[in-house]
Specification:
Blueprint lengths: L1 H17 L8 E19 L5 E20 L2 E9 L5 E13 L2 E10 L6 E10 L3 E7 L34 E9 L2 E12 L7 E2 L5 E2 L1 E14 L2 E14 L9 E14 L2 E14 L2 E3 L2 E12 L2 E11 L8 E13 L1 E16 L7 E9 L1
Antiparallel strand pairs: 1-2, 1-21, 2-3, 3-4, 4-5, 5-6, 6-7, 7-8, 8-9, 9-12, 10-11, 12-13, 13-14, 14-15, 15-16, 15-17, 17-18, 18-19, 19-20, 20-21
């Protein structure tokens, strides 16, 4: 690891010496996005008053300036400001090396360099045509598909969440990917040091959070069979107090997800199911999501779709269940580079506990 760090820094340094100015050897590019939207929502808790809200909002405003200083080294500055929240500036650097069919890559993202600098993804990755091994801090693959879903309604304050993200977050450890043509296998093994007070930390018999070692496994398999695509993901975590003399409360975390789609001409139909079970002491939650969708490409950059979701909050008593429907339409906005997304949706949420029941609807336009 130290040897490759030296290789990466040397590549950046030598490239900087060889190309001391942007006009002399640097390949500079810029990309980004600006998102503007307008929406109207109506939410009614069971037995309560209806709240109607209209809003013109600024969504993601991101820009990334990338410079390739040599064939084996590049860096980038990225400004990110998401959904009217606080913005940040990040610095990324990448170094690569190849030998025949084998390659290696080192990547580091220093997050929020103008504020409290932390780490985004930081990893070293080696691989060839069939196998890739990655070690460090990075995100997992996302496999959930919900169709277009440009707008999905939720009851204010009590809406049931969607558990489409079957991820170990944060993830630090090792991942092995195997590409076998129509079948791809990914196996991730977390190797975490969870500080006291963090989400994965155990709690002792007195209710005090303690430092915890976390490991487990997260396999994912994808298969493509003509127009049919299937993905299955599962994970389970194991928690152990770093102080072996501490008596801790029960804690577990497991999840699975199965999603699939089939294409028929310009149409795609998909179906999925996700479930997660967590236990912290005497509290156990098993939220779930059943979803389906259909999308149709109309030509000329236009598409239309409809989707449904049945969401359960997974509480042992008085579980809340939300049923959501949405319809979406997308089209170029004067030029193909900009898409106008139109969506409308409704939600009905039920529970024996009336404080967890209600309904919502709305529509949204986003550029």
């Amino acid at each position: 690891m130290k040897k490759f760090k030296s290789l990466m820094l040397a590549a950046l340094a030598s490239a900087a010496l060889a190309a001391p100015s942007f006009a002399d050897g640097h390949s500079l590019s810029m990309g980004g996005e600006v998102v503007i939207g307008m929406k109207y929502t109506s939410s009614t808790p069971d037995g309560g008053d209806t709240t109607n809200v209209q809003d013109t909002y600024i969504g993601d405003v991101n820009a990334k300036l990338t410079s390739k200083v040599s064939d084996s080294a590049s860096y980038a500055f990225e400004f990110l400001k998401d959904d009217e929240g606080a913005g940040k500036v990040s610095f990324e650097m990448t170094g690569t090396a190849t030998s025949g069919d084998n390659s290696i890559k080192a990547f580091a993202d220093l997050s929020d360099i103008t504020g409290t600098t932390g780490y985004g993804d930081v990893y070293i990755q080696g691989g060839n045509k069939t196998t890739t091994v990655k070690v460090g801090k990075f995100g997992g693959s996302e496999n959930y598909a919900g169709g277009l879903g440009y707008f999905r309604a939720g009851v204010d304050g009590i809406g049931v969440g969607n558990i489409e993200h079957i991820l170990i977050d944060p993830f630090e450890g090792v991942e092995i990917d195997i590409n076998a043509g129509d079948i791809q296998l990914e196996v991730a093994v977390p190797w975490l040091n969870a500080a006291a007070g963090s989400g994965y930390a155990l709690v002792d018999s007195a209710g005090t959070s303690v430092a915890t070692n976390v490991t487990g496994i997260r396999p994912n398999i994808k298969a493509a069979m003509g127009s049919v695509n299937v993905s299955a993901t599962f994970y389970t975590l194991s928690f152990n107090a770093q102080n072996s003399g501490v008596d801790t409360q029960d804690k577990s975390d497991t999840a699975y997800q199965l999603v699939g789609s089939v294409g028929a001409g310009d149409a795609t139909v998909g179906l999925g199911y996700s479930s997660k079970t967590t236990k912290n002491g005497d509290t156990e939650l098993t939220p779930s999501t059943l979803n389906g969708y259909v999308t149709v490409a109309l030509g000329g950059g236009q598409n239309v779709g409809a989707s449904f979701e049945v969401l359960g909050d997974g509480t042992e008593k008085d579980e809340a269940t939300a049923t959501r429907f949405s319809a979406s339409y997308g089209m170029p906005f004067f030029v193909e580079a900009v898409t106008l997304k139109l969506g409308a949706g409704t939600t009905t949420q039920s529970s024996d506990d009336k404080t967890k029941a209600g309904s919502a609807s709305g529509f949204e336009a986003e550029w």
